[in-house]
C-alpha cells in the first residue's frame, strides 16, 4: 500500500537518508527506530508527502507521492493521511474539539456531526475534559493526545506519527498506543510510528531500524 524505493535526502552536506527502500501493507503497524539523527523524522516526512526526496520514489496505493505538486500532495495528505507531528501543531485559535473536527470539516462533513465525532475521539484518548480549551491552555501531554485524536478522527488510510508518546507518562502513553492500534486494526489503516521507546516499538508488527540514514535491520 505504501512503498519507498531508494530514497535519498540531504540537508546541505548532511545526508539524512541514503538508499532507503521499504514496503508497508494495509493494516500494518511499523515502528521506525534508530539513534537520534539517523533519519527517522526525515523518512516519515518523505513517506507522508511533507518533504520531497531528492532521489527515489514514494508510492501510496499505486500513486506516486513524491512527484505530485504541492497542492496535490496537500490534498492527498488531507484525504488519505493522518499525521501526528512531534510538537502537536494544533491551530492556536481553535478549541481542542474544533482542532480535532478539522479533518472532517475539510472533508465536507456537517459541523454538528464533525464536532460530535471529535468529542468521541477526545473521549477515547482520555482528554474529553479539554474539549473547550485552547491549545495554549493544554499541557504538552494533553496537546499530544488531542493531536492523535485529530489524526485518527477521519479514519485515514495511513497514519504517520513522530514520537506520539514522547510527552506522555507511561500510563497515558499506553492509552495512546492502544487507541492507535485499535483504530488501525478496525479501519485497516497502515500505521507508521517513529519512536525510540521500546514499549512503543513492541506494539508494532515490524521494526525498521535506521542507522546513518540507511536501513540497518
Ligand atoms: P532523527 O529523526 O532520527 O533524529 P532526522 O531525520 O531528524 O533524524 O535528521 C537526520 C539528519 O538530518 C540529522 O543530521 C539532522 O540534523 C539533519 N536534518 C534533519 N532535518 C534537517 C533540516 N531541516 N535542515 C538541516 N538538517 C536537517
Ligand atoms: P528529532 O528528535 O527527530 O531529531 P529534532 O527535534 O532534532 O527532531 O528536529 C525537529 C525539527 O527540526 C525537524 O522538523 C527537523 O527536520 C528539523 N531539524 C533537525 N535537524 C536540523 C538541523 N540541523 N537544521 C535545521 N533543522 C533541523
TrEMBL record:
It comes from the Bacteria. Pfam families: ABC_tran. Coiled coil: none annotated. GO terms for molecular function: ATP binding. SMART domains: AAA. Keywords: ATP-binding, Nucleotide-binding, Transport. CDD domains: ABC_MJ0796_LolCDE_FtsE (cd03255). Residues 2-216 form the ABC transporter domain. The keyword Nucleotide-binding applies. InterPro entries: AAA+_ATPase (IPR003593), ABC_transporter-like_ATP-bd (IPR003439), ABC_transporter-like_CS (IPR017871), ABC_transpr_LolD-like (IPR015854), MacB-like_ATP-bd (IPR017911), P-loop_NTPase (IPR027417). PROSITE patterns: ABC_TRANSPORTER_1, ABC_TRANSPORTER_2. This is ABC transporter ATP-binding protein.
Amino acid at each position: 500500500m505504501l512503498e519507498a524505493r531508494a530514497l535519498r535526502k540531504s540537508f546541505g552536506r548532511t545526508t539524512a537518508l541514503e538508499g532507503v527502500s521499504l514496503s508497508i501493507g494495509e493494516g500494518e503497524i511499523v515502528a521506525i527506530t534508530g539513534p537520534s539523527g539517523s533519519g527517522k523524522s526525515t523518512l516519515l516526512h518523505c513517506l507522508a508527502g511533507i518533504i520531497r526526496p531528492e532521489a527515489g520514489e514514494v508510492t501510496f496505493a499505486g500513486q506516486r507521492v513524491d512527484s505530485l505538486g504541492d497542492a496535490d500532495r496537500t490534498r492527498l495528505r488531507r484525504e488519505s493521511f493522518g499525521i501526528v507531528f512531534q510538537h502537536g501543531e494544533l491551530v492556536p485559535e481553535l478549541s481542542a474539539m474544533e482542532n480535532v473536527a478539522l479533518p472532517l470539516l475539510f472533508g465536507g462533513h456537517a459541523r454538528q456531526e464533525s464536532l460530535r465525532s471529535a468529542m468521541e475521539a477526545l473521549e477515547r484518548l482520555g482528554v474529553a475534559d479539554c474539549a473547550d480549551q485552547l491549545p495554549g491552555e493544554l499541557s504538552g501531554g494533553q496537546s499530544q493526545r488531542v493531536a492523535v485524536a485529530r489524526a485518527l478522527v477521519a479514519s485515514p488510510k495511513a497514519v504517520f506519527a513522530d514520537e506520539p508518546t514522547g510527552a506522555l507518562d507511561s500510563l497515558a502513553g499506553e492509552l495512546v498506543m492502544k487507541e492507535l492500534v485499535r483504530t488501525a486494526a478496525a479501519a485497516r489503516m497502515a500505521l507508521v510510528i517513529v519512536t525510540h521507546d521500546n514499549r512503543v516499538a513492541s506494539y508494532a508488527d515490524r521494526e525498521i531500524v535506521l542507522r546513518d540514514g540507511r536501513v540497518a535491520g
